[in-house]
Amino acid sequence: MRRIMPALLALAVIGGCQTGSLPRTTVPDLGPADVGAVEGIKVTVVARNLSNPTHVSFRPGDGALTVCDSANGRVLLIDGKTTVLHQGMQTEYWKKISPTENYYKIGPLFCLWLNESDHVVGDGGGPDGQETLIFHVGKNAFATNALAPTQPDNKSDLGEGNFVGPVLSPDGKTIYAASHGNDARSWIVRVDVKTRKLEHFISSDEAGVEVNAPMQCLIVRDRLLVLYSGAGGKDDSRVVEYDLKAKRPVDQWALPGLVDAMGIAPIPGRPDEYAVVDNNWDLTSVKKGKLARVKLAPGRDAGIKILADNLRGPVHCAFGPDGRLYVACLGTMFDESNGEVIAISGIR
Question: Which CATH architecture fits 2-345?
Answer without folding.
Answer: 6 Propeller (2.120)
